[in-house]
């Protein structure tokens, strides 16, 4: 039976599935923002450092994230995080919760496949500004499902680290997905759009 | 002839070549920092925003980088960047050049291959603090070779954007590559180590 499959078609299908659906057109910036976030398992978070001698300097760090279980069209758009006070960036956030989060299709197979350089706008990336907040008990279930479904090893992370569920509370969104500069998307547009 | 190759061995060899050499042991934090930077083609750069209404807030963005042509043991450790004043983060840097740069093995095939979550310290990531500066004419040749060898499309980027070569001037380095918290590496240790 196997000979009846076209390997190219199978590879393409797998790639589309892996990418969580087809990429939106670049004029649809709100959908693009949702698409890129949902297809990224992690992002870079920038905080204002609270460290001795570096207070107020920018500080970039890496965190796993999830806006919902994997698969196309299933993301909530909310970047959930699994944090501990032992993390240096979380200590920054306790002093000043302002933060910025960036995710890029360079993190997925998409840009390599299309031979787009990571700094080429066609290798879309999204910048969020806002703050990081602990989620309340009613939202913790959603956050847990979103995170643990995509980051199964989180369940076994050391209990004495006092992990908690948090979210990036989005106040500003910039989309770089085409030539001509950054596009601004409002949180309302972002959350109301069909992904 | 092809049957005489062991596909697994070939795949491993390709992976090692792609990864630019073998990963250093985690106790060798300076070498790990050099290894991760050299194996990443891009990073997330955090600046202090100069935007109206967001002045002084952290701002995370994505930039291509290179510390030297691809291949194992050939990196200089210096993160070179190709920038334009049209970039919003570069406008931030013109007001305040303090910045932070992070690179992660999550950007390479390494963590997926070993099934390490991006937030697992074994999926090593490095955080640099410092500032971004334009390189002088004598260093521009090095920067150009480092960047254009790994980002060939840069050569064709629009001339009217007034691109210039810059580097991330490293003042602090943190390495997260094992359990037990961040390790501090000095720029001296970092630049003096054999990669």
From TrEMBL, chains A, B:
Q: Which residues form a coiled coil?
A: none
Q: Which residues form the signal peptide?
A: 1-22
User: Where in or outside the cell is it found?
Assistant: Secreted
Gene3D superfamilies this protein is in? Electron Transport, Fmn-binding Protein, Chain A
Checking Pfam families in the record gives: CREG_beta-barrel (PF13883)
Per the UniProt entry, what is one GO biological process?
A: regulation of DNA-templated transcription
Stored PANTHER family: CREG1 PROTEIN, PROTEIN CREG1
Q: Report the protein name in the record.
A: Cellular repressor of E1A stimulateds 1
């Amino acid at each position: 039976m196997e000979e009846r499959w076209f390997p190219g078609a199978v590879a393409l299908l797998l790639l589309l599935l892996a990418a969580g659906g087809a990429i939106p057109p670049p004029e649809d910036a709100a959908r693009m923002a949702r698409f890129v976030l949902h297809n990224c398992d992690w992002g870079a978070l920038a905080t204002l450092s609270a460290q001795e001698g570096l207070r107020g300097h920018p500080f970039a760090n890496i965190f796993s994230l999830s806006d919902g279980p994997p698969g196309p069209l299933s993301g909530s758009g909310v970047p959930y995080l699994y944090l501990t006070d032992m993390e240096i960036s979380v200590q920054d956030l306790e002093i000043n919760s302002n933060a910025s989060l960036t995710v890029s299709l360079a993190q997925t197979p998409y840009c390599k496949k299309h031979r787009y350089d990571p700094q080429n706008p066609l290798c879309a990336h999204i910048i969020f500004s806002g703050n990081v907040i602990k989620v309340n008990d009613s939202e913790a279930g959603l956050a847990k499902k979103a995170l643990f479904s995509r980051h199964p090893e989180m369940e076994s992370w050391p209990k004495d680290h006092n992990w908690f569920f948090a979210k990036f509370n989005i106040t500003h969104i910039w989309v770089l997905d085409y030539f001509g500069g950054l596009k601004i998307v409002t949180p309302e547009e972002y959350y109301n759009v069909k992904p």
